[in-house]
Design goal:
Blueprint lengths: L1 H20 L46 H16 L12 H13 L10 H12 L21 H26 L2 H12 L2 H7 L5 H20 L7 H20 L3 H20 L6 H33 L12 H4 L11 E2 L8 E6 L6 E8 L9 E6 L8 E4 L18 E6 L5 E8 L7 E6 L11 E5 L15 E5 L5 E8 L6 E7 L10 E7 L6 E2 L7 H17 L22 E4 L8 E3 L3 H26 L6 H25 L15 H20 L9 H24 L1 H4 L25
Antiparallel strand pairs: 1-14, 2-5, 2-13, 3-4, 4-8, 4-12, 5-6, 6-9, 7-8, 8-12, 9-10, 11-12, 15-16
Helix pairs in contact: 2-5, 2-6, 3-4, 4-5, 5-6, 5-7, 5-8, 5-16, 6-16, 8-9, 8-10, 9-10, 9-11, 10-11, 10-15, 14-15, 14-16, 15-16
EC number: 2.4.1.109
Protein name: Protein O-mannosyl-transferase 2
Main location: endoplasmic reticulum
Length: 754
């Protein structure tokens, strides 16, 4: 009898719980029988709305307004943890040497090259300029003291943007799950994660990138909520904000494409549902489609291009980035030797020229008196590519018979056979069947002969890329290849630095004739007193040309990134398990050490929650598919898991899985955008699990289990943060494996280096 009473009481309690729950969520009579999207819980309404939406996009069911006190606490803790000790250490840490220096370049308007789009560096520069930094600190290497230079503004700006990440995550999860508890779990994980704190406190692109990613995600979720009120002011506001955030993410790093893909997939799903709503006319569907094209494609594209327009306008002085770009690009930079100069427009016989390779930092065709050493092909004069302007880059253009004495010189055309004579040494550009010094499958290129005399191996055929026989060779603008007549190979810059020399790069003759930047050259300097000169300002590229070139150079630079000396290159499978961090500052016990490593408790909870999420979704889906009768709140929990949780899982996959197929060098910090999605998914998963404690225990024991689980989780995260916070805020004294260390016993994995 006692057992029956307990069971009866448990059923009554669950029934009353369901009734209480229905005060917040729609009843079955109010709700569509079709699956309900997590972003927009909707009421039954079969008639079209006056603004063009049908019942499928009518008013969203009422949801508790965000707990303002909780949000204030989350905001306060987030800003406090990120801004604490923001000026420590007072020296350059890790990649501050790059992005701080680039901020200085903007302030000084000096052109530079970076593999990432410019928005992040522009914002860093703006923050520094607005807080009194004058752009004079050199940022030479990590460990350099800032001394009197004002660096806190740039660090503070990044920390402020990083402080918004837990806040955005709180709001996103609250909207997707309709649970303040899930949102609070997510915010707690991010606020007290040592990795998120560390990466937000320095002059880096990562906090700026993650700010825009999370802003785009929040705007998308908020926009989805407005589906019952299309084309209203709030609907347009969130659409425009989402588009602006997408432009911001892509404008900081190309990995912003991942969140663009996420928003694109969500938008495609929304449009597909709108198309299936037969109460809407095709004109209404077209309006929805065009609005999204404007807000999520045209607006981001316009903003992204505008960022580059500002970038090019600001950086108008010659600088360290000149050599990465074409000669025509360089001609627009004040202080460059090509700026506002005059020279003949078309290449002619008898001209003195310099020839520049089109690969990134390919250098100028160069020679000097030094010979190749013994054992390296023929012991003839070296021909290399040199990255700097030099008199030894000068070559004379001759006909094969050396007849260039006419009053009006003949112009060089596509298909012509020429001989290039090195002006300083008078030796001809020459190739033969000997192996190249480093690229053994290529042929050696040398300087041969004297005073214009040589042999048939000195003859090269000029080929204008994309041209036809008879086309003229334009200075600066024509892409040219030089085909060796005797062997059929093509003049090539391998990009490999020769072991002995002065920053000399190997030049070879490649038997592989595919057109690549390494085998393409352009004529840069051109001197011929018998020809009229034109101002190079007439040959300057237009905005679209320099925009396209800058993207080609950035993409090539990204794919060619190599690990830095003494720096660990990690693998994607390392990241979710927190296998290895990054040294931001210091190595030995006498130095101020900062180590980028996620709070291991937080990261391992996230990892476990991924598996738990898949199990819960599988069990729920099987139960529904088998027709098992579930309470209304169980259905709602299932919808939150598959809808909101599914969106977060997709976000995690899109920001993580692509790194497995990337050929470039990878680092631990690349995982942090994915970690944000993983933490949000953890909040949804653990909250749903604890809310279903009444499947195991009757009331009030299930409530006790739920509250107890929440408190244990909170205590565990807080205590782990207390143990590992020196990783973020600085360590001094003995290392973790030495006696007396403040981190003694906390090196849980041998791969951790603190």
């Amino acid at each position: 009898m006692e057992k029956e009473e307990c069971i009866s009481q448990c059923h009554k309690t669950r029934d009353s719980s369901t009734l209480r729950n229905r005060k917040v969520f729609p009843s079955p009579e109010q709700t569509h029988q079709s699956p309900i999207t997590p972003e927009s819980k909707i009421k039954q309404d079969d008639t079209p709305c006056s603004n063009g939406s049908s019942g499928d996009y009518s008013a969203r069911a009422s949801v508790d307004s965000p707990n303002q006190l909780l949000l204030i606490v989350v905001t306060g803790l987030s800003f406090a943890t990120r801004l604490y000790k923001i000026t420590e250490p007072p020296h350059v840490c890790w990649d501050e040497t790059h992005f701080g220096k680039m901020g200085s370049y903007y302030i000084n308007r000096t052109f530079f090259f970076d593999v990432h789009p410019p928005l992040g560096k522009m914002l860093i520069a703006l923050a520094g300029y607005m807080t009194g930094y004058d752009g004079t600190f050199p940022f030479v290497k990590p460990g350099d003291k800032y001394e009197h230079h004002n660096y806190w503004g740039m660090r503070g700006f990044c920390a402020i943007l990083g402080s918004f990440l837990p806040i955005f995550a709180y709001l996103i999860v609250q909207e997707l799950s309709r649970s303040h508890t899930a949102a609070l779990i997510t915010a707690t994980l991010l606020i007290f994660d040592t990795g998120c704190i560390t990466i937000s406190q320095y002059i880096l692109l990562d906090p700026i990138l993650m700010f825009f990613i999370m802003a785009a995600m929040l705007s998308m979720v908020k926009f989805n909520q407005q589906s019952s009120r299309p084309f209203t002011a709030s609907w347009w506001l969130w659409l425009v904000l989402c588009g602006a955030a997408l432009a911001g993410a892509l404008g900081v790093k190309f990995v912003g494409l991942f969140v663009i893909l996420l928003v694109g997939l969500n938008t495609a799903g929304e449009l597909w549902r709108i198309l299936g709503n037969l109460s809407l006319s095709l004109m209404d569907v077209a309006k929805h489609f065009l609005a999204r094209v404007v807000g999520l494609i045209l607006l981001p594209l316009f903003l992204y291009v505008t960022v580059f327009a500002v970038h090019f306008a600001l950086l108008n002085k010659s600088g360290p980035g000149d050599g990465f770009f074409s000669s025509t690009f360089q001609s627009r930079l004040i202080g460059n030797n090509l700026y506002n100069v005059s020279m003949p427009e078309y290449l002619a016989y008898g001209s003195t020229i310099t020839v520049k390779n089109l690969r990134i930092a390919g250098g100028y065709l160069h020679s000097h008196w030094h010979l190749y050493p013994e054992g390296v092909g023929a012991k003839q004069q070296q021909v290399t590519a040199y990255l700097h302007k030099d008199y030894n880059n000068m070559w004379l253009v001759h006909k094969p018979d050396n007849n260039t004495q006419s009053e009006i010189p003949d112009l060089v055309r596509h298909g012509d056979i020429i001989r290039l004579e090195h002006k300083e040494t008078t030796r001809n550009l020459h190739s033969h069947l000997h192996q190249a010094p480093l690229t053994k499958k290529h042929f050696q290129v040398t300087g041969y002969g004297i005073n214009g005399t040589g042999d048939s191996n000195d003859l090269w055929q000029v080929e204008v890329c994309g041209g036809r026989r008879g086309d003229l060779v334009k200075v600066l603008r024509s892409k040219v290849r030089f085909l060796h007549k005797a062997t059929g190979c093509v003049l090539y810059s391998s990009g490999k630095t020769l072991p002995k020399g002065w920053e000399q790069v190997e030049v070879t003759c490649s038997p592989y004739l595919k057109e690549t930047p390494s085998s393409q050259w352009n004529i840069e300097d051109h001197i011929n007193p018998k020809l009229p000169n034109i101002s190079l300002s007439l040959l300057k590229p237009n905005f679209l040309e320099i925009l396209l070139e800058s993207h080609i150079v950035m993409i090539r630079g990204n794919s060619g990134l190599k690990p830095k000396d003494n720096e660990m290159n990690s693998k994607p499978w390392h990241w979710p398990i927190n296998y290895q961090g990054l040294r931001f500052s210091g190595v030995n016990e006498t130095e101020y050490r900062v180590y980028l490593l996620g709070n291991p408790v937080v990261w391992w909870i996230n990892l476990a929650s991924l598996g738990l999420y898949l199990i819960m979704v599988t069990v729920s889906s099987i139960a529904i598919q088998r027709g098992i009768s579930l309470q209304q709140k169980r259905l709602e929990h299932s919808e939150v898991l598959t809808g909101g949780g599914g969106l977060l899982l997709l976000g995690w996959l899109l920001h993580y899985a692509p790194f497995y197929i990337m050929g470039r060098v990878l680092y631990y910090h690349h995982y942090f955008p994915a970690m944000l999605f993983s933490s949000m998914l953890t909040g949804v998963t653990l909250d749903t699990l604890l809310r279903n404690a009444d499947l195991l225990l009757c009331q009030p024991y299930s409530d006790w289990l739920q509250r107890g689980g929440q408190m244990i989780l909170l205590f565990t995260v807080l205590y782990s943060f207390y143990m590992f916070h020196p990783l973020s805020y600085g360590m001094t004294g003995p290392l973790a494996h030495e006696p007396g260390s403040a981190m003694a016993g906390l090196k849980w994995m041998d791969s951790w280096e603190f």
